[in-house]
Amino acid sequence: MFKSSLYPFFKNMAFKLDAEVAHELTIKSMNYLAPWVNNRPSDPRFHCSSFGLNFKNPIGLAAGLDKNAEAISFLSYLPFGFIEVGTVTPVPQAGNAKPRLFRYPDEESLRNCMGFNNLGMDLVFKNIENANRREKILGVNLGKNKITPNELAKNDYATLYQKFAPIADYLVINVSSPNTPGLRDLLQDSGLREIFQEVALKRKVCARPLLVKVSPDMTHEELTSVVELVKEFNLTGIIATNTTIMPERGAGGVSGKLLFQKARLTRQYLLEQLKETPEIELIGVGGFGSFEDCLDFWSRGGKLIQLYSSFVFQGPKILHDIERQLGLEMTKRKVTSFEEFRSSLK
Ligand SMILES: Cc1cc2nc3c(=O)[nH]c(=O)nc-3n(C[C@H](O)[C@H](O)[C@H](O)COP(=O)(O)O)c2cc1C
């Protein structure tokens, strides 16, 4: 059995290696481990639904860990409620120069300047087709190629949407990575509007839930304008947040505990903005590392959460810990469904 108790042993070895080498080896070996995963049935009390999809639980895997959709068969065995793969770009690209992934173990944080390294949409599509998803909800995170000028970015997003909509449960427009030069400029009103307009044409042909991922470095004014566009173009929701820039640490984007407060404030602002439109979803990501962090988000009206860094540092144990504490809290509050639990927090 691949039990979470094995993770400290695995981590001890992996953390002796360069961060990206360890990451690559882990992804490549994951599917071989799949048959040994202790695959427990999910607790029906944790089931929840959002944008027409039924999630086994509200905790998902954030984009960037399985960029090429190579480990879905393994990841779908773990108690994630949903998995997001990508960022995938139309044509393959190598990403930025190495080293480009750094750990801060004492702060349970990472810094990366990967730059959307991925195998490109055709291979990623094949990987998804060949994966055993075990009915897990699968999101695909879309990004433009580095060589595509911002004026033509809309075409990349439309092409990617068209490619993956038939095979994905939901799609994400990612314009918030700090590692592709000029990408975040697309978060401005005119850039996003053009992308949403172009993707809307493809969405008429194959309608899928569509979200946009925002940066924790945006001003309230910028966030408000994203909310307005999300409403105008009937997007499904917003994912908050991507990594943050901390130039004092070096280039790239910081994730994990060092990001938590900034991402939390962004989420709080967005939850306020979306109060009158509960049909627009806010998926929380950025620094979640404990049940208490999740509880904070749920008690402010949030529902779905994604993890990346805390999964790297704590392994599958973080998922078991959140489930166990959620179960205890639900019993204490005498509620039998996740929706009832959220209502009990108000
Ligand atoms: C190494 C690494 C690569 C990432 N790559 C992507 C990516 O390709 N696309 C994306 O939308 N987010 C990417 N992210 C951001 C995560 O999806 C997430 O938004 C961020 O790490 C904050 O969550 P966390 O604090 O739980 O790690 C990446 C993060 C890390 C650490």
Report on the structure:
The protein has one domain: TIM Barrel, CATH 3.20.20. It has helices at residues 7-14, 19-33, 72-75, 121-130, 153-164, 189-205, 220-232, 257-273, 291-299, 309-314, 317-332, 338-344, and strands spanning 48-50, 53-55, 59-61, 82-88, 101-104, 109-112, 137-142, 170-174, 210-214, 237-240, 253-256, 281-285, 305-307. It has twelve helices and 13 strands. The protein has 346 residues and is α/β, with parallel strands linked by helices. The site of flavin mononucleotide has 28 residues, from strand 4, strand 6, strand 11 and helix 10.
Give the cofactors and ligands.
Answer: flavin mononucleotide
Q: So, the CATH homologous superfamily?
A: Aldolase class I
Q: Main beta sheet, described?
A: 8 strands, parallel, barrel
Global geometry: globular
Number of domains: 1
Helix content: 25-40%
Number of helices in the DSSP assignment: 12
What fraction of residues sit in β-strands? 15-25%
CA(first)-CA(last) distance = 40 Å
Biggest sheet strand line-up? 3-4-7-8-9-10-12-13
CATH architecture: Alpha-Beta Barrel
The CATH topology, please? TIM Barrel
Low-confidence stretches: none
How many β strands by DSSP? 13
Order of helices and strands: HHEEEHEEEHEHEHEHEEHEHEHHH
Radius of gyration: 19 Å
Classification by helices and strands: alpha/beta
